TrEMBL record:
This is Phosphomannomutase. Belongs to the phosphohexose mutase family. InterPro entries: A-D-PHexomutase_a/b/a-I, A-D-PHexomutase_a/b/a-I/II/III, A-D-PHexomutase_a/b/a-II, A-D-PHexomutase_a/b/a-III, A-D-PHexomutase_C_sf, A-D-PHexomutase_CS, Alpha-D-phosphohexomutase_SF. It comes from the Bacteria. SUPFAM superfamilies: Phosphoglucomutase, C-terminal domain, Phosphoglucomutase, first 3 domains. Its cofactor is Mg(2+). GO terms for biological process: carbohydrate metabolic process; purine ribonucleoside salvage. Residues 48-186, 209-308, 320-441 form the Alpha-D-phosphohexomutase alpha/beta/alpha domain. GO terms for molecular function: magnesium ion binding; phosphopentomutase activity. It comes from Zhouia amylolytica AD3. Pfam families: PGM_PMM_I, PGM_PMM_II, PGM_PMM_III. Keywords: Isomerase, Magnesium, Metal-binding, Phosphoprotein. The lineage of its organism: Bacteria, Pseudomonadati, Bacteroidota, Flavobacteriia, Flavobacteriales.
Length: 573
């Protein structure tokens, strides 16, 4: 990428004007004088407000999260709200997580909104992201904002925007808001807050959210008094809600106290990401010490959860997001079926990079399977676009799940409760969460997935990721592990191409930088640059029939070997 030094310098010098505070101007001048490379990283582009919001490293500069970049977003959003709802009493809910500066940045956002005559409902302390989604509808707001960077490293923060239905913004609102923001200059931001319009919220919304979680996630499972849970919040927001929800549902919960205090440094883990086994090390150790049945860990903003259960040999193992999603969806389908609530127009949902096993479940239970791009905003859009179809539940491979539609984003609070209900019920029935998963493989096919995530930081990293995607498109793979590629789906062009027949079909899903290969033997491989991190991700799915649980380990070894061969063959490193 050819970055003009002149352009960088022009961008930086604008931050020396009177519109910026003294500390900011001093830091920018120091970068100009002493650190041209860092100056380039911070000012070579504007940190993009994407289709869900903004996420990035905190610091001074146009390519950083700070009061000015977030202030500009909020000013644009304020202008947009007034255009779309000219006669309304404008109301916006704001929540924030445990990260450094989240509380002060949340107040900056509230200040800008109130300066524009908008009433703000600001949580008085940190809260889970799903509670913000709930609060938007509960408080009858047009919009919601949460300050979070999910499971990114400590130096990151972010800004996500929700619309009237409690889901993240989607077309056409996203593009219209982006255009409004891009039309502004930093001098257009109104930081002069109207404190009378800022209302602090806490217990009342908490109680309503907790009660809704219990109503949607509790199924009066048997054996709760004999079921032991270890829970860790990984220094995040879930400590405010999850233990209370589990306690009220009747569960015995043991909290990892060393990780219970919210802390943006995440001092006990390398990454506060429940997808990473290392993050649950302390919880797993406690589970073995007290002979617990299940471990649950949530990410900092409490929208993702990782669970560990005991395998056939009594060893605690971490399940992946596809496995927990399949089990939660199957359990919900069983509940609906038992109550004779499945009439044929209900639906479950997931994403294009998640396990194809979800489709097998939908077919088996006679419900529709809707599939969308990565991100729960697309599932929320499905619910909004199809009010005539009851939504049962759905998720994605990245450890997120949504139970019903009372929250319109992934919700680790209710999903944690649901996972515990499933496992307690299974144990009471002389089975286990793990055994029931293996039985699902016998019933619907053994699907095995693996995610390869490659980090490429900075300007050069972005170019490397771009080049990798270009190569995959211009030099398509013809076979994978000896199996012919039958079809390639390119979501950037919305074209599905059958390599055998030559037929091209249109993909009825919004455009995205995703490429998916399908082979004769049912292998599926997707490539997708991350929208929130400097990474490119490869999603591998292989499958094989499983005749019985006794055959599980041998069949799993076969599928693991196949995945290893694919990784080596396609040079995913």
């Amino acid at each position: 990428m050819d970055i003009s030094l002149e352009k960088v310098m022009d961008n930086a010098k604008k931050w020396l004007s009177s519109s910026f505070d003294a500390d900011t101007k001093k830091e920018v001048q120091d970068l100009i004088n002493n650190n041209p490379e860092e100056l380039k990283e911070r000012f070579y582009k504007d940190l993009e407000f994407g289709t869900g919001g903004m996420r990035g490293v905190m610091g001074v500069g146009t390519n950083r999260i700070n009061k000015y970049t977030l202030g500009k977003n909020t000013q644009g959003l304020s202008n947009y709200l007034k255009k779309v709802y000219p006669e309304a009493a404008h109301k916006v809910a704001i929540a924030y997580d445990c990260r450094h500066n989240s509380n002060t940045l949340a107040k900056v956002v509230a200040d800008v909104l109130s300066a524009n005559g908008i009433t703000v409902y600001l949580f008085s302390e940190l809260r889970p992201t799903p509670e913000l989604s709930f609060a938007v509808k509960y408080l009858d707001c047009q919009c919601g904002i949460v300050l979070t960077a999910s499971h990114n490293p400590p130096e990151y923060n972010g800004y996500k925007v929700y619309w009237t239905d409690g889901g993240q913004i989607v077309p056409p609102q996203d593009g219209e808001i982006i255009n409004e923001i891009n039309s502004l200059d930093f001098t257009d931001i109104n930081f002069n807050s109207n404190e009378s319009l800022i209302k602090f919220i806490d217990k009342d919304v908490d109680e309503a959210f907790i009660n809704a979680s219990l109503e949607n996630g509790s199924f009066n499972a048997k054996g709760k008094d004999q079921f032991k849970i270890v829970f860790t919040s990984l220094h995040g927001t879930s400590i405010t809600t999850v233990p209370e929800v589990l306690k009220r549902a009747g569960f015995d919960v043991h909290i990892v106290e060393e990780q219970a205090k919210p802390d943006g440094n995440f001092p006990t883990v390398q990454s506060p990401n429940p997808e990473e086994p290392e993050a649950l090390t302390m919880a797993l150790k406690m589970a073995d010490e007290i002979d617990a049945d299940m471990v649950v860990g949530t990410d900092p903003d409490c929208d993702r959860l990782g669970i560990a259960v005991r395998d056939l040999h009594g060893k605690m193992i971490l399940l992946n997001g596809n496995q927990t999603m399949v089990m939660m969806t199957k359990f919900l389908l069983d509940q609906w079926k038992r109550k004779d609530q499945i009439k044929g127009n209900e639906f479950i949902a997931s994403t294009i990079v998640s396990t194809p096993m979800m489709n097998e479940l939908a077919n088996a239970y006679g419900v529709e399977y809707k599939i969308g791009l990565t991100g729960f905003k697309w599932i929320a859009k499905m619910i909004k676009d199809h009010p005539e179809q009851p939504f049962i539940g759905g998720g994605e491979e990245s450890f997120g799940f949504m139970v019903g539609d009372f929250v319109r984003d992934k919700d680790a609070v209710t999903a944690t409760l649901l996972a515990c209900e499933i496992a307690a019920e299974a144990k009471a029935n002389k089975s286990s969460f793990y055994k029931d998963l293996l039985q699902a493989y016998v019933d619907y096919g053994f699907y095995k997935e693996k995610l390869i995530s490659i980090t490429k930081k900075g300007i050069s990293g972005a170019e490397e990721i771009k080049k990798m995607m270009i190569d995959l498109r211009e030099k398509p793979v013809q076979s994978i592990d000896g199996s012919k590629v039958l079809k390639i789906e390119d979501y950037s062009t919305s074209i599905s191409y059958n390599l055998q027949s030559g037929v091209k079909e249109s993909i009825q899903i919004p455009k995205s930088n995703v490429l998916i290969y399908y082979t004769e033997d049912g292998t599926k491989i997707a490539a997708r640059p991350s929208g929130t991190e400097p990474k490119i991700k490869f999603y591998i799915s292989v499958n094989k029939p499983l005749e019985s649980i006794d055959d599980f380990e041998a069949t799993q070894n076969e599928l693991d070997s196949k995945i290893d061969r694919i990784i080596k063959e396609l040079n995913f490193n």
